[in-house]
Design goal:
InterPro entries: PDDEXK-like_dom_sf, Restrct_endonuc-II-like. This is SWIM-type domain-containing protein. By secondary structure, the chain is of the alpha+beta class. It folds into three domains: 204 residues, no CATH class; 32 residues, no CATH class; 273 residues, Alpha-Beta Complex (Lambda Exonuclease, Chain A). It is built from 17 helices and 14 strands. The strands form four sheets. The protein has a five-stranded mixed β-sheet with strand order 6-9-10-13-14, with helices on both faces. Strands 1-2-3-4 form a four-stranded antiparallel β-sheet. A three-stranded mixed β-sheet has the order 5-8-7. A hairpin with a 2-residue loop joins strand 7 and strand 8. The longest helix is centred in the C-terminal third of the chain and has 25 residues.
């Protein structure tokens, strides 16, 4: 059981190792973590007689080898919490040099699924505690709460053992049951008594008294109440609903549960693409599935009212539960270049999964709002307010255009002013993701191009340009501003809609949505193990971009 820590000593720093060796000299230099299993005993009768004064003497008045001052250890109560909660298990002991070594498992308090801590103590036969250690972070101080938990456990065992000898029968049922695994429980089965109450009851159980216990005759009378009738329960639920309290119990009552459904099931929101999957479609042939997806493509539509509702629901996308739901199956502006460059005959599974099964990305993974972006936002806002009339900047949610309901844009902000109208703003930081030492700004991440007159512009084949064009066209705003930050300079550029560029892009995107995304959403066509697809030119001819736009 202790083999997991046989190399524990090798991980100690020099000062901790010196103290560890000093403690083990009490038991002829034996390392408790390396003592063979057959040398340990689980017989409680051989445990040393540790009493409460011994615990107090060790935890409070023993000098620490590190601080050389009295240990004002107020965590003894936490130690007792571990004991009464049953977090101490597998107590074992052995004797070396007439001294007892006690070791046990103590469950972790912050991570119950992790391996428990393994503290040990060295005591004299009369119960005097000579040394202790634990493999937790604070165990080097020799008085951690895990060490205290073992001490309280042994002390209780001693009391129970003495009680058993007095009444001439076993009293070990008074001990706390060891918690081997923490399971989910019904509320009615959970003991909500405070630790202080449990401690008081435990002390009463293990305290020996020569006098019989006098039980109080003041019993609490339990009133017998008839169960409510169906009419009374219906009235109660109706009044609870009318109070607008949003009580959780009403979500289980058929008459009121629909008030607690996700907001996208109510109101002016379109059918979700994530609900298209049907196991029956997996039995279709490739051509039958494509014909079925063609019908979905022609009928798939989002009204202007529905688009506005989605935008409002996803404004706070960091905490919005609907954020990933509405994104599922839609081609976002940031993936437009990847979709346009992908081979429809053999599509990228990684790209497809990122569209059909989006995951919430942690800020640490993207560094999406670093200090550079905060500064860029502040400077952009200050500059625009000084140069434009009634300039306003505000956050937005997913933007969907009814003309292309399979696309969505998410600019960082929307802007407006009296002189220029409404626009979008996208902030990009390249220096945090890819530090560069380049002096020539036109070479920075292949993002920019320098014109003959020395002007620096975004390259039209760069993913950022695709993203900006998607934002300005999908949102139908007058312009799209982009602020790109590098380690050498900050580039600010305003773009209007490039109509010719957008017409070329949209034709490829329509085909990708029909032949790649819809088959995956309806039947997991590409991610199934036996899936193979090769789209021919003939299959592309039966469905044109104009047909989808007219739907």
């Amino acid at each position: 059981m202790w083999n997991m820590l046989e190399n524990y000593v090798d991980s100690l720093n020099p000062s901790s190792l010196a103290r560890y060796i000093e403690k083990t000299k009490l038991i002829d230099g034996a390392d408790p973590y390396r003592i063979m299993k057959d040398q340990w005993s689980t017989d409680d009768k051989d445990l040393p007689d540790i009493t409460y004064p011994d615990i107090v003497n060790y935890l409070v008045t023993t000098e620490s080898s590190y601080t050389l001052e009295d240990l004002k250890d107020y965590r003894s109560l936490q130690s007792y919490n571990y004991f009464v909660s049953g977090w101490v298990s597998d107590v074992m002991h052995c004797t070396i040099n007439d001294r007892s070594i006690i070791i046990a498992k103590v469950q972790r308090s912050l991570n119950v699924k992790a391996a428990p801590f393994l503290p040990w103590i060295i005591t004299e036969s009369n119960g005097v505690i000579r040394a202790a250690h634990c493999n937790c972070i604070t165990g080097l101080g020799e008085t951690c709460s895990h060490v205290g938990a073992i001490l309280f456990t042994v002390e209780a065992v001693v009391k129970v053992r003495q009680m058993a000898s007095v009444v001439d029968e076993s009293a070990y049922w008074l001990m706390s049951h060891n918690v081997q695994k923490i399971e989910f429980s019904k509320v009615q089965d959970i003991n909500f008594e405070s630790t202080e109450t449990l401690k008081r009851k435990k002390n009463q159980n293990v305290t020996i008294s020569p006098f019989p216990t006098v039980k109080s005759s003041n019993k609490v009378k339990v009133l017998e109440v008839a169960p409510p009738t169906e009419q009374e329960m219906a009235k109660f639920f109706r009044e609870l609903h009318e109070s607008n309290a949003k009580s959780a119990i009403l979500s289980l009552i058929p008459e009121y549960c629909h008030f607690y459904g996700p907001c996208y099931l109510n109101g002016p929101l379109p059918k979700l693409l994530c609900d298209l999957y049907d196991e029956n479609w997996t039995k279709m042939s490739k051509y039958e599935l494509f014909d079925y997806c063609k019908k979905i493509m022609l009928s798939f539509a989002v009204t202007a009212e529905q688009a506005d509702a989605i935008e409002k629901e996803t404004r706070d996308h960091d905490s919005s539960k609907q954020w990933l739901i509405f994104r599922t199956g839609l081609i976002t502006d940031s993936k437009l270049r990847a979709v346009y460059s992908d081979d429809i005959g053999q599509p990228s599974i990684y790209l497809l999964k990122s569209i059909c099964y989006p995951k919430k990305v942690k800020p640490k993974q993207t560094n999406c709002y670093c200090n550079h972006l905060k500064l860029a936002h502040a400077l952009y806002t200050e500059t625009m307010k000084s140069q434009h009339q009634d300039f306003v900047i505000y956050k937005c949610g997913l933007i969907i255009n009814p003309s292309w309901p399979f696309l969505t844009a998410l600019p960082d902000y929307l802007t407006s002013c009296r002189c220029c109208g409404e626009g979008t703003l996208q902030l990009k930081c390249l220096c945090c993701n890819k530090p560069d030492e380049l002096i020539d700004p036109s070479a920075v991440d292949n993002c920019f191009i320098k014109t003959e007159n020395g002007q620096i512009l975004l390259r039209q084949d760069h993913p950022i340009y695709y993203q900006i064009q998607a934002q300005v066209n999908i949102s139908r705003k007058a312009y799209a501003d982009i602020v790109v930050i590098t380690s050498q300079f900050t580039h600010v550029e305003r773009n209007q809609s490039n109509t010719r560029f957008w017409e070329i892009i949209i034709k490829k995107v329509i085909d990708y949505f029909r032949y790649i995304i819809l088959p995956e959403l309806t039947s997991k066509f590409y991610t199934r193990s036996n899936s193979k697809l090769a789209i021919t030119d003939d299959q592309n001819k039966d469905f044109t971009g104009e047909e989808a736009l007219l739907s």
